[in-house]
Amino acid sequence: MKTVLVTGGLGFIGSHTAVELLGRGYRVVLADNLSNTRADVLDGIASIAGQRPTWANVDLADPVACRALLQGLGDLAGIVHFAAHKAVGESVQKPLAYYRNNFGSLVNLLDHLAERPACRLIFSSSCTVYGQADSLPIREDAPVKPAESPYGNTKQVGEEILRDGARAHGFRAIALRYFNPIGAHPTARIGELPLGVPQNLVPFITQSAAGLRGPLKVFGNDYPTRDGTCVRDYIHVVDVALAHVYALERLFAGKGADPVETFNLGTGAGSTVLEVIHAFERATGAKLQWEFAPRRPGDVVAAYADTQKAAAGLGWRAERTLDQCMADAWRWQQTLPGK
Ligand code: UD1
Fold first, then answer.
1. 199-235: b or e for each residue (b if 16 or more CB lie within 10 Å)?
2. In a mutational test of the pocket of ligand 1, which residue from 12, 125, 197, 219 has the highest number of ligand atoms less than 8 Å from its CB?
3. pLDDT tens across 177-204, in order?
4. N or C: which end of the chain has fewer CB within 10 A?
């Protein structure tokens, strides 16, 4: 039985990935310091998977604590590294905290790979590395654009750290560039837990429809798109989670031309903000109050993935529809007041 460490394993994508790994017979260890989630996510994971993974409450940016954790785990087959700060606006206010945390944890984990290059690593990257791409859909070989925020920079430089480390120390890794992961597990036992006012579209929609927030502000109505609102590639979190399992298995099978490969995780189809609102109302029967507001600084006009490389290399495609994303996100939202 292979052991896989999932860092940020109690977070949104980490918890869904833990469930999929457990379902495929891996021994799963979670590392999470609860900086942006809650301990009871472990109960949700356990109730879906039928087994309770080990959880270590560790700050991976602390080199001593990180090393102690890894030494205690013995022979690790792989690490799926989600643990990172991820709020764009906050990263502008606290850039040093973002660099310390996101680079510190990555470098500490790579120190382990340098000593044990047989251990494979999956890194959470983002489509934010492409900025406003010159052509759509976005292929993995599209140029990386100057980062709009310290958060975005941690993803770009994180990929460079991987490549430099792999070149020097002979380990292998995959960076997965997520487009817009949304939704929740269909059981509604795990999902997204935004602390405070959600900055991302779908958690704001579900909280607004639940009466916890005012009307949704649709940022900008004069973009050069089919209805004037921005286009994004929204992808169900379970599809994203499955891609991590396939990426790990690609590394375990020794496939891959380069020591560090990158793959887009998107559906290949873009949706406007208004289309997301309509999908939400259609899939849930709930009504959403919304109004137009000025553009949000830093937003790109349109981003959606070319999915061919992931299909060929990972044998993976997103299968869940936007309506399923909305239905699952809403079911999850409705369980939250009881928690
Ligand atoms: C954002 C980040 C991105 C990060 C990702 C995951 C920015 C500029 N980008 O992506 O770097 O990787 O989250 O955390 O913050 N929208 C509204 N009203 C709202 C919220 C959003 O109209 O209240 C619109 C946005 O203008 C955008 C779309 O919804 O067009 C999606 O926004 P969001 O969910 O924040 O994702 P991104 O901006 O694509």
1. eebbbbbbbbbeeebeebebbbbebebeeebbbbbbb
2. 219
3. 999 999 999 999 999 998 889 999 999 9
4. N
